[in-house]
Design brief:
alpha/beta; Rossmann fold; Rec A Protein, domain 2; 2 domains; nine-stranded mixed β-sheet; three-stranded antiparallel β-sheet; 11 helices
Length: 344
């Protein structure tokens, strides 16, 4: 049989080649250096049709980043879903950031179990796509907060469906979450691709005892997320202290973001952003200062001693950032970034 004849025979049995799984659509996160480490391009960001894990210590900005993704999805004509296993989502703050809380632009569910939360998100995505209520290219972002807080069904209920008491838990329940993530993420991965949705799982970190060499940190839920997440974004946090009146004052945190795994671009890329708190205790990312720092590293903004040179004027970077924010000139900074050479 010739190769041509073989091709015709195979075509009759299994058909032609399936479409490649390269993402067609991307979600701009609103901060181009972050887009760059996530996708390899300033003009892209998070992919549709993939699982993303964002993990790190408490108060490192995980939910803040996820809320930014939900807002971006809505602005692009899509829908945001939030599965709240942790019972800690601040809707008021999210709305102040720009989230549209109207149903079904935003769907919030307090799932009891890991299985229920994942099932609800996939059911919503399926109905949204089948309804054609939004364009096929519009994003569906589902945020799961968090893997560490999710309770497996086997832990919550016994074999007869009766709710178990806390005093009934055993050592077998310690590994229940790892087992259930292993079994369900296989299916979740298929559904996420089928519905072209972006599934963002937030996770915490734990320290492994007895580790002398290498990274002592790990994430709850076993190793399944490491396999099924296309991108794993690790967050780290350092305190920012400033001296005021002879005393040191806490001003915020320096958040280091690093792609520990990335199937869409080169891994182990990082970007630092300041997480600043306002007088009411609400946190926000200082993207303006972060972008100035990034442009200095690229040589697009010159630095002379402690000063930066912008528009022919010398000033401190902090002064420039305040000026840019006050005058709404953030786009001028973005225009200084190198142009992307996007693939055809």
């Amino acid at each position: 049989m010739s190769l041509e004849a073989l091709g015709k025979a195979l075509m009759g049995v299994v058909g032609g080649n399936d479409e490649a799984t390269e993402p067609k659509h991307w979600l701009d996160m609103g901060y181009k250096p972050l887009n760059k480490i996530l996708s390899g391009y300033y003009g892209r960001g998070l992919p549709h049709g993939r699982i993303i894990e964002i993990y790190g210590p408490s108060a490192a900005g995980k939910t803040l980043l996820a809320t930014m993704a939900m807002i971006a999805a809505q602005k692009a004509g899509g829908i945001a879903i939030f599965i709240d296993w942790e019972r800690a989502f601040n809707l008021k703050f999210a709305v102040e950031m720009g989230l549209d809380p109207e149903y079904p632009r935003f769907i919030y569910k307090r799932a009891e179990t890991w299985e229920e939360g994942n099932t609800q998100a996939m059911q919503i995505a399926k109905m949204v796509r089948e309804s054609k209520a939004i364009p096929a290219s519009a994003p569906i972002v589902a945020v799961f907060d968090s893997v560490a807080a999710a309770v497996p069904k086997s832990m919550m209920f016994d074999a007869k469906g009766k709710e178990r008491g806390i005093d009934e838990y055993s050592m077998n329940d310690t590994t229940a979450l790892a087992r259930v993530t292993s079994t369900t993420l296989k299916s979740v991965n298929q559904y996420v691709g089928k519905f072209d949705m972006t599934a963002i799982y937030l996770n915490q970190i734990r320290t492994k005892p007895g580790v002398v060499y290498g990274d002592p940190t790990t994430t709850p839920g076993g190793t399944s997320m490491e396999f099924y997440a296309s991108t794993r974004l690790a967050l780290g946090a350092k305190k920012i202290m400033e001296t005021s009146g002879g005393e040191k004052e806490f001003k915020g945190r320096l958040i280091g973001m690093e792609t520990k795994k990335n199937k869409l671009s080169r891994p182990f890329q990082n970007v630092d952003v300041r997480l600043i708190y306002d007088d009411e205790g609400r946190a926000h990312f200082d993207f303006t200062t972060g972008l100035i720092d990034h442009l200095i590293d690229l040589g697009q903004i010159k630095k002379e001693g402690n000063y930066v040179v912008f528009d022919g004027k010398k000033m401190f970077a902090s002064v420039l950032a305040k000026s840019i924010d006050a005058e709404g000139r953030f786009a001028e900074l973005e225009a200084l970034l190198p142009a992307d050479a996007l693939p055809a």
